[in-house]
C-alpha cells in the first residue's frame, strides 16, 4: 500500500503534471525534424549561430507548451446539448465554455471517447464570458451514446502541438434512427377514417365547422342548424371538414439480426414521420414495448426515442438524454 | 478574405523575406536567385498568387532548377551550402505565390526556418542576427494568427489585437530561453569550426595596385567602410591613433604614374622579415575585412616582420603563405574574402635602413626623375629650400611650404599631360597623391633620395582595438636620411589625411562596429572557456574580504541557487527516466508468455494444438509433473498481467523466467541422470 501523500504535495504534483495529452501536429513534426537537423549541425560544426538558432527553436517548443497550458487552465465546460440527433447526418450540438481568469485562444471542443465525429471551435475566449460553441456532430448509428467528457484542445500558440484537456462530464445522447425515405407501405390501418365516412347517409365530414348551406333533398336532417334556419327562414345545414385520420400501428418484429433491426428501425422511423405528417395516428409495437397510437410531434418524438433504444438496455426511468 | 487574414499573410511573407535576407547578407547567393526571390516577394506582398493554378508546372521548374544547381555543385562552380540555400529560397518563393492554405503556410514557415539555418552557415554578420529576430517575431505572429483563425467560426473576425499581448510575452520568453540555452549548452566541439567568411554587401575598395596614377578621382576618401581592424600590443590607449599603416612603396615615376623598379617575387613563407627587429617592437593582430578587397598586407610604419596569416573563405579558414614583392609589398599567396595575420613594427621614428641595404635598382630609382619634368619643379624646390641640404630638414621645409601654399581637394580635372606641373603651377590644389608626389620629386631634384608610400592614415579606437576605414587611404613620402633610414614626411595638410566621410555616417558605423564587436565576442566566438567563466562567476564570490575578517570558505548564495537548479534538473531527468522505464507496455504480457513457452519447448513439453498456457498448467498439475510447481505461479502471473489489470513490474518477468529456467534445468538433469524419457504431456 502506498503511503498517502500530503495534500499540498498532491496539489503541487497535480499542478506540475496536469492530466493533458499532447499530440504533435504535422507542421510540428517537420519543425522537430528541422530542430534536430539544426542541433546536429550545431554539434557538428560548432557554429555558434546554429546554437543560437537551436536555442530559439527549443525555447519556442517550451513556450508553446507553457502558453497552451495557460490556455487550458481556469476553464469550465458544460453541455447545452442537441435538439434532435439523427444517425449519419450532422446535427447541431452545443457546449457552453467559460474562463475564470485570463484569456484563451484557439480552443476546439469535441466529445471524448465517443463515436461522435466533429468539433466546434472558439478563436478567442476572454475571462468571464459564457461562450456557446456550436458544432455539427455526426453519429454513425442510432442508439444511446454514452458521453464521458468534453475534450478541449488547443494548438495555441504556433500550431506545433495539440494539447488536450478532458473535462469529465457524464451524460447520454440518444441518437435517433437515420432519416431515410419510407419505401414500404405502412400496411392496412388498424382503424379506418374516424367518423361517418363509411355511412352513405352521413358522407360529410366530422371535423371542424367549415360553413352553412341550404339543406338539399335527401340529406340528413340531423345536420340542420335550427337556430340559423329559423333566423334565415329556410333550412340550413352545417358543413364540416372531412377527416381522413387513420390509425396505424407499426411493428418491429422480434428476432431480427443487428443489420435487419437497423434497417427496420430506419424504415419505421421514416414511416412514422410520414404518417404523422399526414395527420394519422401512429403507434408502435416492438418486442420491448408498445406505444399507443397518437398523432402529433410529441408522438413522433416518443416513437423515435423508442426506436433509438430498441436493442439497448434502457436506464431506469428513461431519462431524457443530453 | 476575412479581417486578419490579409495581415497574417503579409506577416508570413515578410517573415520569409527576412529569412531570405539572413542568407542574402552573406553576399554569396547568386544574383539570379536574389532577383527571383525579390520579384516573388513583391508579387506576394501585392496579394497576387499567380502560381495558384500552376502547381505542377512550377514544381517541374523547381525540379529543373534543382538539377541545374546540382550540376553546378558537381562541376565545382557552386558551393553546396550556397546551392542549398538558393534552392530553399526558390522553394519559399514558389510557396509564396501559391494558394495560401494551411499546408502552404506551414511550408513557407518551414522553408524560412531552413533559410535562417542556411544563413547561419553562410555568414556571421551582425545583420544576420537582426534578420533572425525579425523572422522569429514575424513568423510567430503569423503562425499564431493562423492557429486562431482556424478555430474562429466562418464569418467571424480574427481577434488580432487580443493575440498580440500573450504572444509578445511568449516570444520574449523564447528569446530569453534561447539566450540561456546558448550560454549554458556545453560546447562539445570547442568551436573549432566557425562560420565561413562572407563578402557581405558592397564593393571592396582598398585601392592597392601595382601602380599609382595621378589624376584619378578621390572618391575613396568619402568611403566610411571599415577595412582593417587591429589590436596593438602594447596598447597605446589613445582614442585616435593617427598612425601610418603602410602597404607598399613606389620608387619610379614616369610623369603620370608611380611604379617599382623591382617587381620580382621572393619565395613564399609563413613569416617574412622585412628588416631586423628590436626588442620594443609593436605587435599587431590585424584583420583585413571583406571591404578591403586586396591581398597586400598592411602594418604600422615601419614593418619589421609579417606572417601567421589566415585566409578566410566561404568554406572555412586556412593558414596561408605570404611572399614579398618589390616596394616592400607583402602579399598573401592565397586569395580569401578576409584575412588575419600578425605584424611587428618598429616603434615610431626611423626605419634604420641604409641605402646600401637596398637592391641596386632601387638605390638608383630613389633619385630618378621622369623625362620631361618641368624645370620649374627643381627651381621651385631650390628656391624653397634656400640651401638646406639635410634631407629631413629639407623635406619638412618643403612639406610645410606645400601645406601652406596649396589646398586640398578631391575634385580633380581628370588626366592632364603633366599632373605634377598642373598641381604645382596651375590648379595649386590636389589630394594626397599630388602632395606626396610633389614632395618626393622636389626632393629628388635636389639630390635627396625619397619615395612614395601608400597605405592608410588613422585608426579610431573601438572596443579595445583600432579600426581603419577605406576613406583613410593615403599617400605620403619616405625620405632616406643617411644613418637613420627612411623617415615619413607627409606633405598633405593634416586635416585631410584621414577619412573625409560625413561625421554622422562615421558615428553610425562606429556604433555598428561596437555592436558587431560585441556580437563577435559574445556570440560568434563564444566557446567552452567562456562557459567555464560563466559558471565560475556563478559559483565564486566576488566580494572583497575584509582585512581583519578571516577569509570565508562558504560559497556565495548564487552557488546554492545553481546547485538547486542542477538538482532540480537532475530530479526531472530521473523522473522522466523512471517514467520511461516503468511505462506500461501493452505487449509485455504476451512477450512474457512467449518466453515461458520457449522455455517449456526447450524442456520438451509437448502441447496439443491450441492448448493455452493455463490449460497446459492445469494438465501438468493433474499429472503431477515436476515442472508444475514452477509453472503455476508463472501462469497465474501471466493471466493477471494479461487480463487482470496488474501489469508486470520492472524486473518481475526476468525473475519469474529465471526461476522457471532453473526448474527446467533441474528437470533436464534429473531426466538425464535417470536415463529415461521425460514425461510426455498428453492432451486432456
Automatic annotation (TrEMBL), chain A:
<protein>
    <submittedName>
        <fullName>DUF58 domain-containing protein</fullName>
    </submittedName>
</protein>
<feature type="transmembrane region" description="Helical">
    <location>
        <begin position="49"/>
        <end position="68"/>
    </location>
</feature>
<keyword id="KW-0472">Membrane</keyword>
<keyword id="KW-1133">Transmembrane helix</keyword>
<keyword id="KW-0812">Transmembrane</keyword>
<feature type="region of interest" description="Disordered">
    <location>
        <begin position="184"/>
        <end position="214"/>
    </location>
</feature>
<feature type="transmembrane region" description="Helical">
    <location>
        <begin position="21"/>
        <end position="43"/>
    </location>
</feature>
UniProtKB/TrEMBL annotation, chain B:
<keyword id="KW-0472">Membrane</keyword>
<dbReference type="Pfam" id="PF11992">
    <property type="entry name" value="TgpA_N"/>
</dbReference>
<feature type="transmembrane region" description="Helical">
    <location>
        <begin position="59"/>
        <end position="91"/>
    </location>
</feature>
<dbReference type="InterPro" id="IPR038765">
    <property type="entry name" value="Papain-like_cys_pep_sf"/>
</dbReference>
<dbReference type="Pfam" id="PF13559">
    <property type="entry name" value="DUF4129"/>
</dbReference>
<dbReference type="Pfam" id="PF01841">
    <property type="entry name" value="Transglut_core"/>
</dbReference>
<feature type="transmembrane region" description="Helical">
    <location>
        <begin position="126"/>
        <end position="148"/>
    </location>
</feature>
<dbReference type="InterPro" id="IPR052901">
    <property type="entry name" value="Bact_TGase-like"/>
</dbReference>
<keyword id="KW-0812">Transmembrane</keyword>
<feature type="transmembrane region" description="Helical">
    <location>
        <begin position="29"/>
        <end position="47"/>
    </location>
</feature>
<dbReference type="InterPro" id="IPR021878">
    <property type="entry name" value="TgpA_N"/>
</dbReference>
<dbReference type="InterPro" id="IPR025403">
    <property type="entry name" value="TgpA-like_C"/>
</dbReference>
<dbReference type="InterPro" id="IPR002931">
    <property type="entry name" value="Transglutaminase-like"/>
</dbReference>
<keyword id="KW-1133">Transmembrane helix</keyword>
<feature type="domain" description="Transglutaminase-like">
    <location>
        <begin position="424"/>
        <end position="493"/>
    </location>
</feature>
<protein>
    <submittedName>
        <fullName>DUF3488 domain-containing protein</fullName>
    </submittedName>
</protein>
<feature type="transmembrane region" description="Helical">
    <location>
        <begin position="160"/>
        <end position="185"/>
    </location>
</feature>
